[in-house]
Amino acid sequence: MLLRTIQGLAMFVCVCKGITDSQIQSAIDKGADYKELRETFGVGTDCGQCGNTCKQMINSHKMNCEFYEVKAA
Ligand code: FES
Fold first, then answer.
1. Which atom of ligand 1 is nearest to the CA of 43?
2. What pLDDT shows up at residue 4?
3. What is the residue extent of each domain of the chain?
4. CA of 66 to the centre of ligand 1 (A)
5. Band of the pLDDT at 64, cuts 50, 70, 90?
């Protein structure tokens, strides 16, 4: 799924929980992984349709970072 913010308007990534792309991106920028996104926002815990989009956002962040800290399990 291609994510695009139209003229600064937030887009809902998780319709079930009402979570926008900017909320998720902000958390990812602060180091959140998918598990943390699930725990913090509840993404992927209802219908699950947003899970892949969240994972794509995390992967995109990793590819755009020179260094990406991996937290120990
Ligand atoms: S859209 Fe995120 S759990 Fe349904």
1. 2
2. 56
3. 12-64
4. 30
5. confident
67: pLDDT strictly greater than 60: yes
The full length of the chain comes to 73
Q: What is the DSSP string of the chain?
A: -----STT---EEETTTTEEHHHHHHHHHTT--HHHHHHHH-TTSSS-TTHHHHHHHHHHHHHH-S--PPPP-
Q: Supply the pTM of this predicted model.
A: 0.79
19 C-alpha to ligand 1 centroid (Å): 9
Residue pair 50/34 in contact (Cβ under 8 Å)? The answer is no
For residues 51 and 33, give the distance between their C-alpha atoms in angstroms, rounded to a whole number: 12
Question: Among 3.30.9.10, 1.10.10.1100, 1.10.1040.10, 1.10.1270.20, what is the CATH number of 12-64?
Answer: 1.10.10.1100
